[in-house]
Amino acid sequence: MPRPAKGARLGGGPHHEPLLLAGLCRELFQYGRITTTEAKARRMRPLAEKLITKAKVGDIHNRRIVRKTITDVSVLHTLFTEIAPRYENRPGGYTRITKIGPRRGDNAPMAVIELVEALTVAQTAVGEAEGATKRAAKDAEVAEAAAVETTEVETA
């Protein structure tokens, strides 16, 4: 776990911060979406993404590394057997933070952090085909513009 930054420690000391972030990651993997403050969500996101990346590898070494942070065995099993295989084709960006406005008691800015839906093979194929279609349309526009310019030059 990274060393805590100088300054505020998310409402606790330097020894409490990694435990707090690990608990938030555990809840995220257990429920798929959690509501927390924006500061905690921003601090938790890199840790959660690194844990998912290690779970994608799936060997015993990475399982032991993740086990240091996620101590609940059932959540660890869910991470390695259900969550990580969903993202095997995705190079990163497994979480999404959405701001939801201030909390009613103390006006703290709140956010929802959730696991994004994995890209399926069909979605990646559609994305590539869509990109190819856009590229083909752009090439056609450029060719048409060049043809119009040559026609104008010949008539002048």
UniProtKB/TrEMBL annotation:
GO cellular component: ribosome
This protein's UniProt keywords: Ribonucleoprotein, Ribosomal protein
Family named by the database record: Belongs to the bacterial ribosomal protein bL17 family.
NCBIfam families in the record: L17
Assembly and interaction partners: Part of the 50S ribosomal subunit. Contacts protein L32.
PANTHER family recorded: LARGE RIBOSOMAL SUBUNIT PROTEIN BL17M (PTHR14413:SF16), RIBOSOMAL PROTEIN L17 (PTHR14413)
Protein name from the UniProt record: Large ribosomal subunit protein bL17
Biological classification of the source: Bacteria, Bacillati, Actinomycetota, Actinomycetes, Kitasatosporales
Gene designation: rplQ
